[in-house]
Amino acid sequence: MATSVLSSNGHAADAALVAAEPATQPGLQVFSLAGRVALITGGGTGIGFEIARCMVAAGATVIITGRRESVLQESAADLGEGAHYLVNDVADLSGLDDLVEQLEATHGPL
Fold this sequence. Notes:
Blueprint: E1 4-6, E2 12-14, H1 15-19, E3 37-41, H2 46-57, E4 61-66, H3 69-79, E5 83-87, H4 96-107
Parallel strand pairs: 3-4, 4-5
Antiparallel strand pairs: 1-2
């Protein structure tokens, strides 16, 4: 039976996966995103956060976006090294080019 733990912002996680090094997690030995950059919209909570967590565990540099900076800041801290955030509202398409430009200037191409 898996033991669940909650991070500081209420994200549920399996205690065994939290404690494990990425290379020891089942399935990740043959799946590496090392050297890759990923942008995850809505990455501060829910499914977006869990996708970001998996990508960080697989070695990617992950940039999560959303509207609420406080949520993004806390989520990026929970995700650990390799996770960063940018505040952006995907409903406002006028800011999309600036978002990608800022991301690529800092972290490299997507």
